[in-house]
Amino acid sequence: MSDVLLKVSDVSVTIPTEQGTVHAVDDATFSINKREVFSLIGESGSGKSILGQAIMRLLPPNAMFSGKVELEGMEISALSEKEMQKVRGKTVASIAQNPYLAMNPGIRVGTQVAEPMQAHLGISKEDAKSRTCRALKYFDIIPPEVREREYPFQYSGGMLQRAMVAMGTAADPELIIADEPTKGVDVLKKRNIAAIFQKVASDGCAFLLITHDVGFARAMSDRIAVNYCGQIIEIAEKEPFFKEPLHPYSQALLGAVPERGMHPIPGPSPSMIEVPEGCRFHPRCPHKTDRCLTNPPVVEINGRFVRCWMYA
Amino acid sequence: MIKLLKNRQIALSLIILGGLIFMAIFAGFLAPYDYTEKNLQNRLQPPSSHHLFGTDNLGRDILTMVMYGSRASLLVGFVVVSISLAIGVTLGVLAGYYGGWLDEIIMRLTDSFLAFPSMFLALAITAFLGQGMENMMLALVAVEWTVFARVARGSTLDVKTKGYVRASRWIGASNAYVMVKHVLPNIISPVLIMASLGIGNVILAAAGLSFLGLGVQPSTPEWGAMLNAGRTYFTTAPWLMLFPGLFIMITVLAFNYFGDGLRDALDQKMKNIELEGRF
Amino acid sequence: MLKADNLHYVYTSGLIKIVKKTAVCGVDIEFCPGETVAIVGESGCGKSTLAKMLVQQLVPVSGEVFFNGMKLTGMSWKNRRKFMGKIQLIPQNPADVVDPRWTVERSVAEPFVICGVFSKEEISANVDALFAEVGLSVEHKTRYPHELSGGELQRVVIARALALKPELLVCDEATSMLDVSVQAFIVMMLKEIQIKRDLSLVFITHDLEAAKAVSDRVLVMYAGEIVEEGTDVFDRPLHPYTRALLDAARYMSLEVVVPEEIGELPDGFSGCPYYRLCRERTDACKKPQKLRDVSGRLVRCWKSK
Ligand SMILES: Nc1ncnc2c1ncn2[C@@H]1O[C@H](COP(=O)(O)OP(=O)(O)OP(=O)(O)O)[C@@H](O)[C@H]1O
Ligand SMILES: Nc1ncnc2c1ncn2[C@@H]1O[C@H](COP(=O)(O)OP(=O)(O)OP(=O)(O)O)[C@@H](O)[C@H]1O
Ligand code: SF4
Ligand code: SF4
Ligand SMILES: [Mg+2]
Ligand SMILES: [Mg+2]
Questions:
Q1: Closest CA relative to residue A209, chosen from A43, A59, A45, A32
Q2: Would the pLDDT of B5 be above 70?
Q3: What is the set of domains in chain A, with CATH numbers?
Q4: Domains of chain C (ranges plus CATH)?
Q5: Peptide bond preceding C91: is omega within 30 degrees of 0, i.e. cis?
Q6: B229 inside domain
Q7: Which of A199, A259, C58, C162 is buried most, with the most CB atoms less than 10 Å from its CB?
Q8: pTM (2 decimals)?
């Protein structure tokens, strides 16, 4: 397996709060190959963004991290902050979940989009600017020469989102961590995003795609991971996953898509502080048995991983 | 709050300031002598084991004087800054929030105060009102409030455009409610930084005015007045000026150091809030 | 119940060179009690701007908004105050509503505090109920906005908007950061309230499947105008833009088409705004298009029959 790009082993993140310790990420283990699009879907508040932040080493200051993150064999979880800054943006780029917060309100959008290009590709200011204009035009932010000079508050939500995608894909990174890159973007423009992701991927870039858009994940990804209450509960190739999700939560999640009539999973979302004993899905699981009160093993079936007693 | 203490700069300056305030409050217990106690036989003694900082031209113990003097200096610093802060922040928030003619008037007012060098303005006012602690404080307030008004107005202009301010107006909040509940808490950190820097400046300015004989009565212990009194003996008995001067320096530096530390810490906090938005 | 006539909005920016940008251009809308309306359309076509005008957060450049026959536009803040709780907007950016220095609990309680008729106990009971209603637990209450996940913050904002029991709720992509299950949970919750209280719901969304599943009526916007409006738009799209949108959604999972180089409209072009991309355009499209009634459907395209 020489083509592994990112290897995440036993990563856990806990965050102390007044109410108790939030177990945001528990024992995450997976790897992403070069050129692979790896999607992470799952419950809102289950620690997907925190996992992305843990890889980028941009966690909240009070968060505790344990585990190992390796990028091309280099342990980035052990790098100093200074060395990490070089990795960020150049090797790993990120597209943040909330574009309003991620963009600096006082700097022109064009300048912000051009920044990673200038910093990491070593191209001149004019080159970066013309590339920025081309990227904005590609995302239908027109006329680019005018729009490039505007400030984030003058953009609509979806436009800012697209500008962020332009920024994230600009500097030829090797891994892009995209946190809900398609939210707020209409279907036609979503295809532009899909197309640029595919182009970047075919140039050799891998993706960690965090998304709630099941259709987009289905169209884009090679492998899918499902997150529930801080744990990755299933990892599978795309085709078999959508044909037959194994974990009861994956099944329930796919059953809740609007196409199937919007049926929410019964029961409340679990607390991230006092996580359910044993299998974290057991309070809501239709297949639960007594053994589900102890930690389920991670079972491997035909190259798929699933954390459930049913398959043990 | 506890996190702030982890910042070394803040912790160190707080220890020094705590010591100074402790000294001021408990001067009565700590001071080895009574500050009114004159002993002309002992006048102008150099520092010794009896009089650690020596004695002055009237034979008073300088250590005692310095300790009691910290009361006047810190009091002036805190009172002047509190009053200026109250006036300045109120006017600044009003100006920034309402804008328009109110802003125009208030800002022209601060401009006209700022047109004079601050020391000159304070001098002019005390000279006009006459010598005395209250008049001196009044003069210093007249100088200080503009700083707070400007800072508060600038930050208010920024906060005013924030979504949450508009959002609470849209559910029916009055302007007063918005100013007190949303604007004030969000502009308070730059104001606090200015306040801690301001106390240092005020103490220095007060010492300066007293040195020029415009502050407190020469008989009351005050660092600036002590400097003034020691002036004539500078060559023969330098300790008369050395110790009060040293304490002025320490106090002013500690407040400035504290303000700088506070600024760094709060900036860092803001950055952390933003940082999380980065994802 | 809420009615808007001929709304226009133009953003002006720039200090030296003034740039004007028309965001909304002649929109008429009416909402009935208990109705669910979905507004879909291109990103950047002025949906959020329209929503803000409906709830009086932006003052339209021209046009009027009526609420139960009362004219809201031009009314003073004092008079409008009693309507403010009745018409609520969940904005696209949830961070736009909550004060970063307040716990989210306090932000949700704020509407109750402002309206001033509730005791402390009532407020805290109401706030607890709202948190439960949107699927958040006690552990989230004492956090600050930046300590919540994207979807959790979005739900805080929904809870706050529900506080004053609105009669009209405009959700501007209010569920965009939620997983499909929680999204369904929230939508069902809103629908329940709708049945209980005759709440009118307006969903601005890019999720066409969700729009189809929940709405009674659909408005399609393009370039600041309504280009199509009707109850069965998704089953029988008439306007070329609506058709392109639905096609794109349908084929999303099959193939990805790289968008071709697209031209720009000449300055001062006053014809159909979709002319630039329309596959069915002819020279007749260079004339301004009116919203026409085509067998119960409003369409802004001369070709549709
Ligand atoms: N700074 C923080 N302090 C305490 N808890 C936090 C903090 N940041 C996040 N959390 C908690 O950690 C958990 C995971 O958050 P995360 O942002 O990763 O969720 P997510 O999977 O990205 O959800 P969403 O899809 O809603 O964005 C949540 O329960 C959240 O409340
Ligand atoms: N404050 C502003 N100043 C200047 N222009 C603005 C401002 N806000 C929005 N615009 C512009 O107005 C147009 C419409 O914006 P609006 O936010 O209403 O779009 P939208 O339909 O909500 O799009 P999205 O689906 O992407 O959120 C956009 O071209 C945008 O750039
Ligand atoms: S381990 Fe048990 S409770 Fe958990 S998902 Fe599997 S069957 Fe359900
Ligand atoms: S009027 Fe012409 S350009 Fe416009 S949508 Fe209809 S056919 Fe296309
Ligand atoms: Mg997230
Ligand atoms: Mg919008």
A1: A32
A2: no
A3: 4-84+208-311 (3.40.50.300)
A4: 2-86+165-299 (3.40.50.300)
A5: no
A6: yes
A7: C162
A8: 0.88
Residue B7 lies in a domain: no
Q: Which long-range contacts (CB under 8 A, 24 or more apart) does B40-45 make?
A: B44/B233, B44/B236, B44/B237, B44/B240
Quote the Cα angle for B109-B263-C145, to 5°.
100
Alpha helices in chain B (DSSP H): 2-6, 8-25, 27-30, 62-98, 100-114, 118-129, 133-160, 163-170, 175-178, 184-211, 223-230, 239-277
Domain that residue B222 falls in: 53-277
Using a 6 Å cutoff on CB, does residue A282 contact ligand 3?
yes
State whether the beta carbon of A184 lies less than 6 angstroms from ligand 2: yes
Could you tell me if residue B271 is inside a domain?
Answer: yes
Q: Which residues surround ligand 5, an ion (CB under 5 A)?
A: A 49, 97; C 149-150
Looking at the 3D structure of chain B, how many domains does it have?
1
Compute CA C178 distance to the chain's CA centroid, rounded to the nearest angstrom: 17
C302 C-beta closer than 6 A to ligand 4: yes
* Among the partner residues A155, A215, A253, nearest to C179 by beta-carbon distance: A253
Q: Decide if B262 is inside a domain.
A: yes
B-C Cβ pairs (cutoff 8 Å, strict): 55
> Which residues partner with A37 through β-bridges?
A207
pLDDT digits (tens, 9 = 90+) for A278-300: 999 999 999 999 999 999 999 99
A160 to chain C, minimum CA–CA distance in Å? 10
Nearest CA in chain A to C244: A188
Domain harbouring B116, CATH code: 1.10.3720.10
Tens digit of pLDDT for each residue in C264-291? 566 667 788 888 778 888 888 888 888 8
Nearest by Cα to A27 from A233, A303, A203: A233
Cα A289 from Cα A311, distance rounded (Å): 13
CB distance A157 to ligand 2 below 6 Å: yes
SS3 for B6?
Answer: helix
Residue B6 at interface with chain A, using a CB cutoff of 8 Å = no
Render pLDDT for B81-140 as a digit per residue (tens, 0 to 9): 999 999 999 999 999 999 889 999 999 999 888 887 777 888 888 888 887 788 888 888
Distance (Å) of CA B7 to CA B4, B264, B268, C128:
6, 9, 11, 37
For C163, the token pair is 């506080």
8-state DSSP, B238: T
Token pair of A310 as six digits: 């049913």
B170 CB within 8 Å of a chain C CB: yes
The residue whose CA is least distant from atom 7 of ligand 4 is: C281
